[in-house]
Structures are given as C-alpha cells and as structure tokens.
Amino acid sequence: MDEELNTTYVTLDGYIEVNKYRYVYFCIIFTLYIIIICSNSTIVYVIWIHKNLHEPMYIFIAALLLNCLLYSTNIYPKLLIDFLSEKQVITYSACLFQFFMFYTLGSSEFFLLAAMAYDRYVAICKPLEYPTIMNKTTVIIFLVVSWLIPAVHIAIQAIASAEATLCNFNLKGIFCNNAVYSLQCQRSRLIIIFGVIALLDLVILPMLFIVFTYTTIFIVSCQSCKEIRKKAAETCLPHLLVLISISCLSIYDVGIARVESDFPKVARLLMTLQLLLYHPLFNPFIYGLKMKEISKQLKRFFCHATIITCINANVP
Length: 316
Description:
Elements: H1 2-5, E1 9-12, H2 18-49, H3 56-73, H4 76-83, E2 89-91, H5 92-125, H6 130-133, H7 136-162, E3 170-171, H8 189-222, H9 226-258, H10 265-290, H11 292-314
Parallel strand pairs: 1-3
Antiparallel strand pairs: 1-2
Helix pairs in contact: 2-3, 2-4, 2-10, 2-11, 3-5, 3-10, 5-7, 5-8, 5-9, 7-8, 8-9, 9-10, 10-11
C-alpha cells in the first residue's frame, strides 16, 4: 500500500477530445499497428528463410525493420490502452522506461543506416575486398554497437531524470519523449551535458559519416561504368529515403521539446504523430518495393501462400 502511495503518476495531456472519439482513435491506431507488425515481420521472415538473402546488406535491413517493430511496440499498446481509459496517465518510472526505449531504438536506426552506408561503400568502391571486410564478425560487431552505444547514452539520461525533482505532472504529449524534461523543476547540468553528447554521438556524427560515405559512392559511381551506377542507384536509394525520413522525424522531435507551452495543441499532436506513423509504416514498403531481391522473394512468398490457401479451401 505504501508503495502505491509513493508512486508518481504523470498525466498525458496531449490527447484531443479522446472521450468523444476514443473508439475512432482506437480503430485507426490498432489498424496501423497491425499493418506495421505484418509488413515488417513479413520482410524479416523472408530474409530469415532465404539463404541467398543472408548477406550483410539484407541482415542490416532485417535489423532495421526489427528495430521498427520494437519502436512501435514501445508506444502503440500504451496508446491503445489510453484511448479506452477514462484517464490517460502513466507512472513516472514507466514513462522513463518508454523514454529510454524510444531514444535507444531511434538512435539505433542512425547507427544501422551508417552500417548500411559502409556496407554499400565497400561493395561498390572495394568489391574485391568485400568478402574479407564485411565478414560475419564485422556484421555482428556493427549490430552490437548499433544497439549498445545508444542504450548506454540514453541510460545515463534516464537515470539522471529518475533522480530529478518534479514540479509538474502534466506532460504535453501522448507518450514520453524528451518532453519529460518539462516535468522537472530544474534540469541538472549532467542531463544538459549528456544531452549534447548524445545528440553529437548518436545523431550528428552518424549522419555526417553517412553523407560522406554516400558522397564518395556517388563520385566513384559517376566515374564508373553504367552497370556500377545502376547498382549504386538500386541499393543506395532506399537507404537514402529512410535516412531523409528519420532525419525529418528527429527535427520534429527536437521541435516538440523546444516549442512554447502555448503552441497549438492540434499542431503539437500532428507533429507527434509524425514520429509514430511514417517511419515504421513506410520502411517495409520502401525496402519491399525498391530492393530487387527482397521484392522478388516477397512475390514468391505471397504466390506460395495464395496457392496453399486455395488448396486448403478446396479440401473437403
């Protein structure tokens, strides 16, 4: 009982007329969540079962889509519960855990995209050395680093926030992102310093590396034959589309934390929804349609599934 009394609750104050449209909101978000789960899981499964897709580039794509699944699962179930609840609240400890997962998984995307960029650089600029450089050990190291480094950075922020004194218990949002800092009486110097370090290490440096790598690939491709240029365009374009998407979403997220308290609630909600919908929803379609090998295997997979369904339907 004492433990319940000492639990700190935060009100999620970003919803608009949730009592009036709760079932509409629930149906829309539930449908989108099912689409995200099915689309991302299908491509991950296709990559897993086909040995010809067990190459570094496709392994990184599978890791990115798995990241999208975890990213969505961190937020969508809580949204669905809130739509059906009379009060949209969350404990402060659960809020910080959601904050930790949100930024860890979000930052991991930049590292995975950086790993993909390096993979494409080696494949196009150093094709003879590709099997030696991009071996199994290298891929494992990239994957571990992509999830471990963001987790360590964000854990420091979350732990420091857990120790902070709260003066406000209304969070202007529908989930816990960096708006949690607005709950604190005063942001500590540790949080400010590590916030800058995290932004530099987890976003800016990976982005600079990606831009530099693709610039090098572009220069080499322009100096090469038509076949190399075609290969570069086919394999690099999806990664660049995803990079542009996640970069825009990062700007949205920073903007949400920086806007004034009198910023229109509808506009704030629309900005927040960008973080939840575009990235996990469109990534599987970008890779499923633009990556030739994945697209081919997906067509075979759905044709096979359709045939099996028809046969089962005709069996008495």
